[in-house]
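ok so i was messing around last nite and threw this chain in just to see what happens. nothing serious, just curious
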Amino acid sequence: ADMVTWLRDSSLAAPQLYGLDRVAGFALLEDFGDRTLAADERLDKRVFYFEAVETLLHLHRQDAPDFLPAYDGPVQAIETSLFTDWYLPYCGVTPSDAAKAEWYAIWQKLGDRLKADEPVTVLRDYHSVNLIWRDHAQARHRIGLIDVQDALKGHAAYDLASLVYDARIDVAEHHRDAALNHYLTQRFGDDQKAHDDFNAALAVCAMQRNLKIAGIFI
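result:
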């Protein structure tokens, strides 16, 4: 509820909260429908990805709320441990305790390195099934945001990685390239070092996310 309210206060399209019972754990939310990239082949993907990136650019211009925990090295290392704990055994590979510890240390270091950059709000599931197309709305408000309760404070590249390296649908290379170029140009202009640094972070975020997802799906 706090995250939904913050997004709406930040001029983003989160569902209206009609009623809330925190003790019982219930919330009554606006229904955005079901027009997602995963469910509706008729959507214009070029326009959809443009508006999805515009939404991220706006989100990343806001100061992250104080109530969000950090998406730091230990959190990212715990998540990537799903790969060694679940996916590898499924494939018939049983890592040793020493290998697991080394894997954890690698991802903790990478996660802490990402944390050194200026943190933003990371919705963490910014992908095809959680972005709802709203025909009647305008500009970035056409992208409805759901499943935001697990947001954290972390690197801006994470949600972009979720969008363009989607685990649930195939993103055409030209849509991926256009989305990345749109984000980098709008945020960093022609600063090539900033582009390179962001692309390096994007690679780490994409790898971390997909390692985690591989374990979760198993």
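not much to say yet. Residues 192-217 form the longest helix (26 residues).
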